[in-house]
Amino acid sequence: DQQVKQNSPSLSVQEGRISILNCDYTNSMFDYFLWYKKYPAEGPTFLISISSIKDKNEDGRFTVFLNKSAKHLSLHIVPSQPGDSAVYFCAASAYGGSQGNLIFGKGTKLSVKP
Amino acid sequence: GAGVSQSPSNKVTEKGKDVELRCDPISGHTALYWYRQSLGQGLEFLIYFQGNSAPDKSGLPSDRFSAERTGGSVSTLTIQRTQQEDSAVYLCASSLLTTPGNEQFFGPGTRLTVL
């Protein structure tokens, strides 16, 4: 059973528009959430994170929203650029990340068309 | 400074052979993780090392998989008697556990193909 779910395997948006990537989780012990971006043949790179005590975190064009009651988070990219085309992974950790591994979703492949 | 490095970048082996994958973490990072990504799947946790503590091996899929971390730095993941289902990209990551949310820095991965 997947504890972190990304139900959309792919998403295509036009350059300049908003990209919204969604993630759902089932484990109420998760208290920190991260988004990673992965280009082909490279390892994932950290993008943005949010603690469960917040409902929004913004960094430039990237904003992550957390809805704890719905166990749902989303990553917004505004405006989207062709260089944003990559696979985006949602990840979660428990206990502030002081213990062990991250739990990852299966990823959403974002394509930004010029 | 240098990031996480992994070698080899690609490995093709025959079913039944043993393979060793190497990871050099970022200097000073106390935690080291191994994950694998099979085709069309997310990252699957395998094993975690933190300092001198006993590793968390809860993600290893079978006893054919083992890992070591020597001197708190370099790690090797060994797969014995490889099977075709072991084909995947094996990713290593390291982190400073003092960072909130345990931000992990990943290497480029080793693509393992078992024929």
Notes on the protein architecture:
- The complex is a heterodimer of chains A (114) and B (115).
- Chain A is 0% helix and 55% strand.
- Chain A has 114 residues and is mainly beta.
- In chain A, strands 2, 4, 5, 9, 10 and 11 form a six-stranded mixed β-sheet that branches.
- The model of chain A has no long low-confidence stretch (mean pLDDT 92).
- Chain A contains no helices and eleven strands.
- In chain A, a hairpin with a 6-residue loop joins strand 4 and strand 5.
- With 115 residues, chain B is mostly beta strands.
- Chain B has no helices and ten strands.
- In chain B, strands 2, 4, 5, 8, 9 and 10 form a six-stranded mixed β-sheet that branches.
- In chain B, strand 6 and strand 7 form a beta hairpin.
- Classes of the chains: A mainly beta (114), B mainly beta (115).
- At the A-B interface, strand 4, strand 5, strand 9 and strand 10 of A face strand 5 and strand 9 of B.
Distinctive features:
heterodimer, A: mainly beta, 11 strands, B: 115 residues, mainly beta, six-stranded mixed sheet, four-stranded antiparallel sheet, 46% strand
Task: State the gist of this model.
The complex is a heterodimer of chains A (114) and B (115). Chain A contains no helices and 11 strands. Helix content of chain A is 0%, strand content 55%.
Q: Looking at the structure, what is the overall shape of chain A?
A: globular
* Uncertain regions spanning at least 5 consecutive residues of chain B: none
Largest Cβ-defined interface:
A-B, 28 and 27 residues
Radius of gyration of chain B: 13 Å
- Helix and strand pattern of chain A: EEEEEEEEEEE
Helix content of chain B: under 10%
**Assembly state:** heterodimer
The run of helices and strands of chain B is: EEEEEEEEEE
